[in-house]
Structures are given as C-alpha cells and as structure tokens.
Amino acid sequence: MNKDEYAKLVKELSPKEPRIKNAIYAFLVGGLIGFIGEVIVNILIESFGLARVDSYAWLALIIIGISCLLTALGKFDNFVTKAKCGLIVPTTGFAHSVQSASLDYKREGFVTGIGANAFKLAGSVIVAGIISAFFLIILKVMCYG
Amino acid sequence: MASLKFSNVYINDNWTITGPMESDSKLKKIDIKLDDYYFDEKTFEQAEIRMQKMAINSILARHKLSSKDIDLIVGGDLLNQIAASNYANNATNIPFVGIYSACATFPESLIIAGSFLKNDNVNKIIGITSCHNLTAEKQFRYPIEYGSPRTQTSTWTSTAAISVLLSKKKKNIKVESGTIGKIIDMGIKDTNNMGAIMAPAAAQTLYEHLSDLNRNVDYYDLILTGDLGCVGGEIFKEYCSKTYNIKIKKHLDAGCELYLKSQNVYAGGSGPSCLPLVLFNKILLQKKYKRILIIGTGSLHSPVMVNQKISIPAIAHAVSLEVL
Predict the structure, then answer these.
(1) How distant is the Cα of B129 from the closest Cα of chain A, in angstroms?
(2) Which of B148, B193, B238 lies nearest to residue A9, judging by beta carbons?
(3) Residue B179 φ/ψ region, left for φ over 0, alpha for ψ in the -120 to 50 degree band, beta for the rest
(4) Could you tell me if B181 and B304 are in contact, meaning their C-beta atoms sit under 8 angstroms apart?
(5) CB nearest B144 (choices: A85, A100, A120)
(6) B42–A107: do the CB atoms touch at under 8 Å?
C-alpha cells in the first residue's frame, strides 16, 4: 500500500467532523456574546451617561476582564471545548489565549516564563495587526495625503 | 533479525498510580488513585516525577527490597529529555537506562530488561513508564487552560505511572519474546489523528514478529495494541489484511478500552501508560487470555518538525506474554 492509498484508507475510516453543527453552534454563541455586548453598551450609555465611543472601550475591558477571570478559575476552557470558535474568535478568545499561556508558564519565572510565553498563541494576531496597520496607513497617506 | 526469544524472564508484579480520569474508567485494582493533577506539588511536571518515584518505591516496599537488590531500572516518559524519569531516578541509587519511543516505551523497556536478564549477574530489573495528561498537553499542544477544541480522531493522554518488577523467578507472567520495530512514515501530518500515524508501524511490527518467529496470528489469543484509539484500531486491522494479508480475529486496542464513552475522550486514550494500564488493570484481571501479544505504538512527533510541515514517523515494538 503506498502513501496515497493509505491516505484514502485513513480518510475512509476516520469519523467526519460535524462541521455544520459546529458552525451553527459557534454562530449562535458568538452572536449571543455580541448581543450581550450590545446590551452592556446600551446600559453604559443610558445609565452612566457615557458617549458611544467610550462605552465600547469600557465594553472591551469588561468582556476581557470577565473572560480572564473565568480562565483563571478554570471554567473558560470547558466553555471553549463546547462552543468552539464561538468563543475563540471574539475578544474573549484573545484574552483567554494570553491568560491561559501565562498560567501555564507562571512557575517558570516572570521573564523566562510569563514574559516569554504569554503571547505564544496571540503573538501572531498582534504581528498581523501591526503589519496590516503599517501597510494600510501607507495606503491611506498615498490616497488621501 | 530484530526478534528475541527469552527463556526465563518473568513479570513478577506491577504497581499503578493513576490520575482522576483513569480512576473513573473501566480499570480495576489500581493501587493509588489521585483526585488532583497536582499531587500536592507545585507544577504538573513535579507531580509526574513524584508519581514515578512513588511507583518505584512502592514496588520495592511491597517486595521488601532495597535499592541494592535491583540491578537496573529501565524506563521513560513523554517529556522533553525524558525529564520525569531522569528526575525520579535522581535519588534511587540504581543504574538507570532512560528510553524514549513515545507510547511504545513499555514494550521497549520489557525487551531491554529481558536482554539484560539473559546475563547471569543481572537478577532483578524494574521497568517504569509514566505520562501526565497536562504535561503532555502543555508540551505538545496548546496551553492547558486554553481548552482547544478536539477532533473526532483525537485521543486523550492518560495520567499514570506504572512500575513492573522483572526477574528470573517463575511467577505470574512470562515474557516469551519481543520484536523491536522499524520507524515507519506513511505521510500523515495530522497531529489529531495519531492512530492513523501509528497503525502502519504496528502492522509492520506484527508482520515482522510473526515471520521472524514463524508463527501464525492465531497463535495468540489476543493482539493488544497500545494506543491506536478506536479509529486507529480499525485502520490497523484493515491495513494488516490489505498489506500483509493478516486476518486478526481477536484484537483489542488499549486506547479504546481505557475510558468510558461518557468521559468524552473522542477516539480513546493514549500515552505510554495506556498499554500497561489496560493490560494489568483490565485484560489480565479477566483471566480470559493465555497468550497475549502486546504492540506498543509510538508516534514520534516533535512539535518543531510538525511546524516545518514534515510528516510524522511512528514506531511499534511487540512483546509476547504468556500468563502462567
């Protein structure tokens, strides 16, 4: 049996991922987080008299704070396992990835442990953000001056 | 020829310590069940070291042996530089052979121990195997608390340390023969489908074992593979019949036998401890099989090579056991 035939055999015998079910579930959970976010924004505007721009900044802080707290309490990973990308794609996932990597390496020191590993997963997102911001700003200057 | 026959090598006893998931599974007669992954230590790695130390010391205590009575310890684990085994053996004061072949560690340790026991001046050897779900997760996959979604083909690394006492005294289980396998790479790159990576290696070793010793597969009452998982087990049987024309009648996979369906581990258990756990704490307790061929299967995957997009090699070692 050569490698191609073997790959075919493996594909045949491996169970399929329930992609559609996962996608619907992630869509609903992600949407629910967006909905909760919108409710929080409106409460901040109505009850605390914040401007819409400021309330979005506060919302990010609140959501990141809650997800970090849940990660530290050891609950968030169970939610991620069930809700999959519904929780990983929003800001909750970003905070969670930094927090969980930091927790893993906390015993290995501040510099060699947490410092070196906190952005193990999230680092590529930050790099992508910086690079795209760099090119977009060049584009903006070229088009609009 | 990579197959060896042993005339007087016996597994006299075994001692087991398991983690929380294994305690709820189908296993029986576990010596110590932990309900905490930390085992009162500061880190998971230190917990694994303590588990190994305890496994070695407890089997010595049970047989009223001191470190002077043991000629050699053979063992390994999953960590980089087999750290758990090296640190656990730091204070034992017994000569130590550290081995790494991922989840094929247990049969490899039996074969090495058997070869040493052929010498007149070697009488008692301890084999030690351990793995810890969270140290393996941290090293090979994502951070522990990240809870990355798993696929249907993924397996769950078991948490356990198992020590076995081997000697020339005729008792319990005879280590009859063993085959050291070749490294096989069938081009699979998916780290979430370890069963598919390891199945061809298991089949190759089974074929070599049978042809070296001139045996038919029906000679064995049971073929027990290490941690192919439920998915890999099926691939193994199919691959054996298609490539080597070996039709296996009685096959079980330790990974598939380890956990309950309700424990949500997808394709089953894995890790170096998976095979000895199921063998000693389940299969042998049933007293159903006389001749058992265990095939430990190791996916020799290195996160560095996986990131370089190179396919993952695998190895399998087989040991033939006879229940006395």
Answers:
(1) 24
(2) B238
(3) beta
(4) no
(5) A100
(6) yes
End-to-end CA distance of chain A: 63
Structure confidence by residue, pLDDT tens digits, B99-120: 999 999 999 999 999 999 999 9
Q: What is the pTM of this model?
A: 0.92
Provide, as residue numbers in chain A, all residues whose Cβ is less than 8 Å from the Cβ of B43.
Answer: 107
Query: Between β-strands B269-270 and B156-157, what pairing exists: parallel, antiparallel or unpaired?
Result: parallel
Kindly state the helix (H) or strand (E) to which residue B156 belongs, with its residue range.
strand B156-157
H/E stretch holding B253 reads strand B251-253
CB–CB contact A81 B147 (8 Å): yes
Write down the H helix ranges in B213-291.
Answer: 229-239, 254-258, 274-278, 284-286
- Which residues in chain A are closer than 8 Å to B235, comparing Cβ atoms? 9-10, 13-14
Give me the phi and psi of B32, to 5 degrees please.
-135, 130
Cβ <8 Å between B145 and A7: no
- Rounded Cα distance, A25 and A94, in Å: 19
Q: Which chain B residue lies closest to A3 (C-alpha atoms)?
A: B186
Among A85, A104, A107, A125, the strongest candidate for a mutation testing the B interface, having the largest count of B CBs within 10 A, is A104
Question: Which residue in chain B has the smallest CA separation from A108?
Answer: B43
The rounded distance, in Å, linking the Cα atoms of B129 and B276 is: 8
DSSP 3-state of B283? helix
B154 close to B191: Cβ distance less than 8 angstroms = no
| Domains along the sequence of chain B with CATH | 3-167 (3.40.47.40), 173-323 (3.40.47.40)
**pLDDT for residue B1 is more than 80:** no
Q: Dump pLDDT digits (tens) for A94-112.
A: 888 898 999 889 889 999 9
Can you tell me the ipTM of this complex? 0.86
Cα–Cα distance measured from residue B140 to residue B142, given in angstroms and rounded to the nearest whole number: 7
Residues 6+ apart with CB under 8 A from B227: B103, B155, B194, B198, B253, B254, B255, B268, B269, B270, B271, B274, B275, B297
- Whether residue B184 is predicted with pLDDT greater than 80 in this model: the reply is yes
